[in-house]
Amino acid sequence: MPHIILKRVWDYCSYSKKYLVFIMVLLFISSLIQNYVIIHGDSNEINILHLLVLIVVSGYGMVITKDRINHGNRLPKIVVKDILLFGIKSAVVISVYVFVQGKILDYICSPLNFPRFDLEEMLLNWSETIHMLYSHNPVNTVIFLVVGAILFYVCSFFMEIALARLADTGSLVSSFNFIAIKRSIDVVGWRNYAKDYTLIVFAIVFLSYLMSYELVFSFLDSIVDMFLAFLIFATQYLGIGAAYCEIKDLETKVRIPVE
User: Fold this and answer.
1) For residue range 45-104, what is the model confidence (pLDDT) as tens digits?
2) What is the value of pTM for the model shown?
């Protein structure tokens, strides 16, 4: 259930509360720098900022994924070299998979006059989703839900395992070995993977809903939102690591002969 996932994320992040506070301080300083550049910087500086943020965020996310694959139980230390290296490589992987996924979903959804199928966005904008589904032809709606969901899940599974393989091996080539990725998903089972992935999405949606509530004091509201955003970030990358950790453990059991 989503609450079990959130508890695991909290246990992982709060294993060392001092280190969690340190991370929050870094995020706060980073947000101040980002706001300053966005307000006072030119377009080139803002673009560079966005690129650096993407690299650092995805890089540390991959470090978390790698740690979880290796049965880690706490936030890993910040090693700039590892973060930058993983960040650049993961940015390439994410860009390629998101581009391909977008093209595939557009091919199905656009002729039906639907936007791309995105489970998280649809759950976050529930009222708009209901209106969209009821305002279309019933046949097209069914096709959109069934085919769109299948393609969305398959594409998401492949991208997650690709990122996990990158975190585990450090190799970009392994992230695009589609046959090996498919075999990895087969190990844990497509149905089980879909169930676990859906629970993670629900956990992220729940945290996102909490972020939508505004507190009386704006400063406190921004701090809470920053903390919730970090939990969403951790949930995503821990989920990737946990799934691949299970896959590797199952593969190891298969290789060990039973006496």
Assistant:
1) 888 888 999 999 999 999 999 999 999 999 999 999 999 999 999 999 999 999 998 888
2) 0.89
Burial of 127 (0-12, 13-18, 19+ CB in 10 A): exposed
Q: Residue 33 in contact with residue 52, Cβ under 8 Å?
A: no
Q: By 3-state DSSP, what share of the chain in percent is helix, strand and coil, each rounded to 5? A: 85, 0, 15
Contact, 165 vs 180, CB < 8 A?
Answer: yes
Copy the structure tokens of residue 90: 């993961």
Which residue pairs, CB below 8 angstroms and at least 24 apart, start in 252-256?
254/187
- Burial of residue 159 (CB within 10 Å: 0-12, 13-18, 19+) is buried
Tokens of 33: 């720098």
Helices (H) and strands (E) in the chain, counts: 10, 0
Residue given tokens 């990158």 in the structure block = 166
